[in-house]
Amino acid sequence: MKKILLLNGPNLNLLGTREPDVYGATTLADVERQCTEHAARLGYALECLQSNWEGALIDKIHEYGRLYKSGEALGCVFNPGAFTHTSIALHDAIKGVDGLPVIECHISNVHAREAFRHHSWVSPAAAGIIIGLGTNGYLLAIDALVRRAA
């Protein structure tokens, strides 16, 4: 069974308690459970990783680049959190694994928020972007990977 990576960056471990007016009351555990069940219904295994450390995210992208090339992975759904706006290293990691489809996903509409959130270093390397649809965006990103591969 091919794998999909659900990757979440800094502070997303605080979902459900951090700024619920912006991010809602759904916890990261809820998101991971919903996404795991959704991926299974579509015939895929889901691996989840959340890290506040940029290097851990980069290492996991590298790993999935190898899995994708060997036919074991379908792609990655990635909410880079605040690293979206600061990390050229994440951009380079995605570009460096040449071919791994990454769907960038954000719970809130970053373009309706503070100006510093309007730029993403990840977007130019991503296969697609889902922004502002709440945690349902994660499910849509999984669907996008599956449809893209069909």
TrEMBL record:
<keyword id="KW-0456">Lyase</keyword>
<protein>
    <submittedName>
        <fullName>Type II 3-dehydroquinate dehydratase</fullName>
        <ecNumber>4.2.1.10</ecNumber>
    </submittedName>
</protein>
